[in-house]
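Go through this pair.

…
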Amino acid sequence: MRPRDAVYSTLKRRILLNELKPETGLTELGVAQELGCSQGTVREALLRLQEDGLVLRNGHRGTMVTPLEADEAEEMLALRRRLETRGAMRAAARCQRDDVTRLQALLADMEEAARAGDDYGLIEIDTAFHMAIFRIAGLRSLDQILQRCILHSHRQKLWEPRHQRPLVETARRHQPLIAALDKGGESLAQALGHHIDTIVAIAPERLAV
């Protein structure tokens, strides 16, 4: 892995897992010293994270981890739902056996990451799974928008202190999506809608917390 990719991956992981809290300040020099790389490498990584919406770069005021805003997260999730459910109608009509095989392989990878307790690995594979379905639809100009929505829905879920769902159960929630592909676009859209609506699992006794 190239140094700039390694730095990007490290910072992205820390932000998503909330090891770097919202509004935490980051400096190119500080990150470079910590990770043993050049400031130029850190700058490239921070620019990529800015494109992901994970950091805000404010010129001479420096860089900070993007705040988590409830209203913004709600809008992002609504946009994600619209994109994925609309794409489902096209994806189901275009799906080939090779597509199903790839989704099954990704599901197996998710379950393996879940059994290993690898939260971040599960996030990465989960994203690849959803993007694989969306790409069957052929709406490539919307790829980056959906990827960003998925990224932020994961971040919001991990930030929610009341969220409780075993990782293996999280992985297996994707099984009905594969099954729905064979049943047509409406079935897949409904399954995806339910999947997205239930990303955050809060036990009834914790709703008032």
User: Anything to note?
Assistant: Residues 70-94 form the longest helix (25 residues). The longest strand covers residues 55-57. The radius of gyration is 18 Å. The CA atoms of residues 164 and 201 lie 6 Å apart.
